[in-house]
Amino acid sequence: MNTDRALDEITWFGHASFLIHDKLNDKNIYYLDPFDFKEKPKEPADIIFITHAHYDHFSPKDIEKILDIDTILVGVNGCKGIRLPKERFLITEPNKQFELNGIKIRTVPAYNVKPERLNFHPKANKWVGYVLEINNAKIYHAGDTDFIPEMKNLGKLDIAMLPMGGTYTMDVEEAIEASNAIRAEITVPMHYRGLLKGNSEIAEKRFKAGVKGRVEILDEIAT
What we know:
Helices cover 16% and strands 26% of the residues. By secondary structure, it is α/β, with parallel strands linked by helices. Strand 12, helix 4 (200-210) and strand 13 form a beta-alpha-beta unit.
């Protein structure tokens, strides 16, 4: 799968909430940090990936809207309140590799290093980002994180989804630095609209200007 085809399979619901539709296999629908659905999405999930336990990333009421009879939920420390059989509710932590539904999954640490943010996403919580390899395309969802040393060793990536809202995560300038270290084929900013102190469009322009590679600003799809 080429990078543009992989990008076409991604839907952004705003914040850090995404859907990836594996169009080479219509049965495969993956959600990352589903949040704030106004209506029930049309596509139930095969796998749901949760990066951390904050309400705007782990939302039981939104997860319930996309559960199917065989949906697998991959969560982390602190994810509670979902009624699923143990074999369909997996708890992971950083630096794990495994396969589900034919896709390769690698967990990456996600945490804050800036002193003013340390209490938001402590490294000790063992929260994560994900690298998903779907039809040979590697897609990285960073979760809520600062620019951390582990980002320099992610290897070749087709798409990287990076937060840039500041306050709780990297701000725009830090996300630029992270993107230029990661060097994905395409970088997609996330987790910034409604969080930035300034105008989102100005932030997007600055991000595009600062990143050395290709940046795509996805349209936010309301459900």
